[in-house]
Amino acid sequence: MIRDITIGQYYPADSVIHKLDPRVKLFGVVIYVISLFTFRGIWGFLLVTLALAAMIKISKVPFRFMVKGLKAIVIILIITAMFNLFLTPGETLVTIWKIKITKEGLKSAVFMAIRLIYLILGTSTLTLTTTPNQLTDGMEKAFRPLNHIHVPVHEVAMMISIALRFIPILVEETDKIMKAQIARGADFESGNLIKKAKAMVPLLVPLFISAFRRANDLALAMEARCYNGGAGRTKMKPLKYQKADHISYLVILGYLVIVILMRVLL
Amino acid sequence: MSIILDKVNYVYSEKTAYEVHALKDINLKIEDGEFIGIIGHTGSGKSTLIQHLNGLVKATSGGIYYNGRDIYDEDFNMKELRGKVGLVFQYPEHQLFETTIFADVCFGPLNQGLSKKEAELQAFTALRSVGLPEEYWYQSPFELSGGQKRRVAIAGVLAMKPEVLVLDEPTAGLDPQGRDEILDQVAKMHKELGMTIILVSHSMEDVAKYVDRLIVMNHGSVMFDGTPKEVFHHYQELEAVGLAAPQVTYLMHELRKKGIPVDGEATTIEEAKASILKCFQNRENRS
Amino acid sequence: MNFIEARKLVHEYIRRDEEGNVEGIDTALDGVDLDIKQGEFIAVLGHNGSGKSTLAKHLNVLLQSSGGTLWVDGKDTTDEANVWDIRKNAGMVFQNPDNQIIASVVEEDVAFGPENIGIPTDEIWKRVENSLKSVGMIQYREHSPNKLSGGQKQRVAIAGVMAMEPKCIVLDEPTAMLDPNGRKEVLDAVEKLNKEKGVTVILITHYMEEVIRADRVYVMDKGKVVMQGTPRSIFSQVDILKSYRLDVPQITLLAHELRKSGMDIPEGILTRQELVDALCRLY
Questions:
Q1: Cβ-based interface (< 8 Å): residues of A facing B
Q2: Which of A170, A226, A235, A237 is the best mutation test for C, with the most CBs of C within 10 A?
C-alpha cells in the first residue's frame, strides 16, 4: 500500500508540460488550486474538470498511474466527506438514529471530495512532470526576492529537493523494516488505537535511526563534493523562458479571468 | 516435517506496465534438518522466494505446505508459522529498536504470546547461541559494532525458537573474520540444534564450504538444485547467467586440461588441497 | 613531493558522557605515515574498525587530524584556506550508494559537483557527458537513480566525482553493499580511470580479491599501518594477515596450504594462472 504513493514521483515522458519552465507550472498549479476552492455550481465544476482533463491529457502521464496516488488519501477523503455530510445544517434528507443527513451536507460532501481529489490529481501533474530538481530550481528562482528579507531560499529549495529524492527510499525502507518486524511476530493491524500506536514503535525507531544515518552520510557526501551553500554555484540547467512558456502564461491568465468572471457573474 | 512449494508463482504490479514475474512455477521440497544455500544474482527472485516461506508475501498462484498443511488455508495460523520459520533479513541490525539488547531479543517471543519469564528464558538461550558475551546484554544495541549488532538481530529471530532459520545474506558488509564467525555460528546451530537452515548468499565460496544442498535461482526460476558439487559441475552454464563457481573449481578444471588428473569436482580449499597432494603423491610413488 | 604525504597522523575521538565530561578517548589513527605518488593505485586494507575509513575522511578534509601532518597535492590540510582546493582534487566515493546521490536524475547528480565549484553551464554539460561515458553509464543519463542496481549507482557516484576533474579519487568501501557483479563493474570502472586517465586511486576495502589490482597495499589495524607493499608481498604473509582479522584470496590460500604441506610453490601466488603454472612446473 505504501508503495502506491505517487506524490513526489517523477514520470518521464516527452510532453509539452514536461518541457515547460517549472516556474510556469508552479504558477499554473497555484492558480488551479485557487480555482478549485472558489468554484461554485455545476458550471464551475465543469470548468475545473475540463482544465484538469486537458492537463492530464497533455502531460502524457497515464491516468491510471495518477489515480494510484489517490489510494493514499482515501482515509482523509472519507473523514472530510463525513464531516461535511453530518455536520452541515439544512434541509433534512434522511435521519439515521441521531444523525441527520441534509441536502446541503450531501452537496458540500460531494464537492469537498471532488475538490480534494482534483487537488491531488492537479498537484501530482506538477510533480509527475517536473523532476524534483527542476521544481526546486523553479521555486528558488521564483522566490529569490525573498532573499532580501533574509529567507534562506536556496537552502529551503535544496532541503525540499533532497526530501523528495529520499521519499521513495524511506518508503522502501519502511516496507522492509515492517516486514522484518512482522517476521518477528509484530502485529501492525489488529488492536485498538493505543495498541496500534504502540505497535509502531518497533517501526519508527529503526526508521528514524536510519533517516539520521542517511542524513549524516549525505551531508558528508555533499561536503566532499564541495557543496558550500548557494553562493557561487552555477547550473547545469539554468532556467530560461521559451516561447511555449510565454504562451502557457497567457493560457493560465486566460483561465484565471474565466474563473473570476464565472464567480462574479454566475 | 517439511516445506513444500507447489507451482508457486508470484507476480507484482500485475496488469501494469511495471509487471514483473518474480517467481515462475517454483516446485521445491525442503526437508527437516537440511542446510540449504540459495544463490542467484540480484533480481533473480531469491529474496522473494524466502519471503514466501513464512507467508510475508502471498503467492499469486500455487500452494505452500508447512508440515503438510496449506499455509493459505483460512484457519491456518500465520503468526505461528512466522515463529516456526524464522526469517533474518538483510542488514538485520537495522530493525533493532529497544533500549537494551536483551529487551530487543525478547520482542519476538513476547509477540508469540509467551509470558515474560518464558520469553526471557528463550532470549537468554538465543543470545547464548549466537555467542554474544553476557556483559553486553543490558547495553544499548546501538553501541555495538556492526558484526555484534547483527548477532543480536539474529538472536532476536532465534529467540522465537524457529524450526527453520532463513538468513538473507547474513554476511553482507562484514569483514572476513566477521563473516567466518557468523557462518560458523550458523553451521554450529545446524549441527547442534538440528535446525533447518536456508542461507541466501552471493558467495560461491561460502556456500561451497557450508551447505549440503544448493539451489540456484535465475530469472525467477530454479535453475539448478543439488549438492554443491553437482551444481558447480555446470560451471559454464552458471557463468552464462552471470554467476560463477568457486575459484578452486576453475583451478581444478584448468589443471585437468593441462593433464594433471586432479579431482575436477573439488569445491573447497580442503578438497582441492587433498586432491592435488594425492595426485602428486601418486606420481612420485609411480616414478 | 608525493601527491599524498602523511607524517605521524593521529585522530582521536573523544567520548563524552551525558554531562559532557570526557569519558575516554578512542584513537582511530595512531601515527600513520603515507607516501602516495600521483597516478598510483593504492589499496588500504583493514577489518571493520581498523581506522581505514577515518583515514579516508582525512584525505578529503572531512575530518581534521588531532596531530601530525597531512599534505594532499602539496597543500597542508590543516590550513583552512586549502579545504576547497583539496576537496576538488581529492574526490570521494562512499559505501552506501543511496546516501550519496543527491539529485533525482542521473545527469543532474553528476552535475552537482561542477555546479558547486562554479563551472560554466556549457562546460558542465561536457563534463557530465565525459564522466558518464568513462564509467559506462551514459545511456542512463536521464534515469532516476532509484531504479538502478547498486553497481550502477556507485558508478554514477564515481562519475559525479570525476566531473570535478580531480587528480585523485578516494573510495571508502565502495563495494561493501554490492553483489559480485556490481563489485566487478565498480572495480573495472575504477581501474579504467586509473589506467586511462592517470587518476590516483585510493581504494579502501576488505575484499581481498579487489586488492590484487592495486600497485601497492597498506594494511591497517588499530589505527596503525601495520604492513605495506605490493599485493604479492602482502599476500605472501597469510598468517600475519589472519592475525589482523583479514583473509587472502582463495587461490592464494590454497597455494599457501600446499606450500605448508611441503610442495615447492612460491609464496604470494595471486591468480589462478600463476598457481596452474607453478603446479605444472612441478608435475
A1: 62, 64, 173, 176-177, 179-187, 201-202, 205-206, 209-210
A2: A226
On whether both A120 and A32 belong to a single domain, the answer is yes
Q: Are residues A110 and A187 in the same domain?
A: no
- Are A86 and A105 contacting, i.e. CB atoms less than 8 angstroms apart? yes
Q: Are residues A114 and A144 in the same domain?
A: no
Q: In which residue are the cell numbers 525458537 written?
A: B161
| Lookup: cell for B12 | 507484482
In this structure, is the dihedral angle defined by the CA atoms of residues A82, A83, A87 and A88, taken in order, positive or negative? Answer: negative
Which residues of chain C make contact with B41, given a CB cutoff of 8 A? 179-181
When divided into structural domains, chain C yields a total of: 1
The more confident residue out of C13 and B123 is: B123
Q: What is the pLDDT of residue C192?
A: 93
**pLDDT tens column, C70-111:** 999 999 999 989 999 999 999 999 999 999 999 888 999 999
The parent domain of residue B73 ranges over 2-226
In this predicted structure, the answer to whether residue A70 has a pLDDT above a threshold of 60 is yes
Residue B122 inside a domain? The answer is yes
The distance of C194 to chain A (nearest Cα, Å) reads: 20
Cα(C76)–Cα(C85) distance, integer angstroms? 11
Which position has the grid cell 512482522? A182
Instruction: Find which of C86, C101, C102, C124 to mutate to test the A interface (most A CBs within 10 Å of its CB).
Output: C102
CA angle C271–B40–B64, rounded 5-degree value: 155
Contacts of B256 in chain C (CB under 8 A): none
Task: State the helix-helix crossing angle for A41-59 and A22-38, rounded to 10 degrees.
Answer: 160
- Domain that includes residue A137, residue range: 131-233
Q: How far A203 CA sits from the closest chain C CA (Å)?
A: 20
Cβ–Cβ below 8 Å for A176 and B156:
no
CATH code at position B165: 3.40.50.300
Give A56 to chain B, closest Cα distance, Å. Answer: 18
Cell numbers at A82, concatenated = 463525513
Q: What are the pLDDT digits (tens) for B156-176?
A: 999 999 999 999 999 988 888
Do residue A17 and residue A94 come from a single domain? Answer: yes
For residue B65, tell me if it sits in a domain: yes
CATH assignment at residue C203: 3.40.50.300
Statement to judge: residues A76 and A196 lie in one domain: no
**Digit-coded pLDDT (tens) for A193-242:** 888 888 889 999 999 999 999 999 999 999 999 998 888 888 888 888 88
A50 phi and psi angles, rounded to 5 deg: -60, -45
B22 belongs to a structural domain: yes
Chain position carrying cell 587433498: B274
pLDDT digits (tens, 9 = 90+) for B216-259: 999 999 999 999 999 999 988 998 888 888 889 999 999 999 98
Within 8 A of C282 by CB-CB distance, chain B residues are: 280
| Backbone φ/ψ region at B97: left (φ over 0), alpha (ψ -120 to 50), beta | alpha
Which of B13, B87, B95, B158 would you mutate first to test chain A, the one with the most A CBs within 10 A?
Answer: B95
Domain that holds residue C145: 4-231
* Whether residues A249 and A228 fall in one domain: no
> Residue C265 falls within a domain, yes or no?
no
- Which residues in chain A touch residue C141, judged by CB atoms under 8 angstroms apart? none
Contact status of C116 with chain A (Cβ, < 8 Å): yes
Give the alpha-carbon dihedral of C245, C248, C253, C257, to 10 degrees.
-40
Predicted TM-score (pTM) of the model is 0.85
Q: Is B242 domain-assigned?
A: no
Which residues in chain B are contacts of C182 at CB distance < 8 A?
Answer: 42
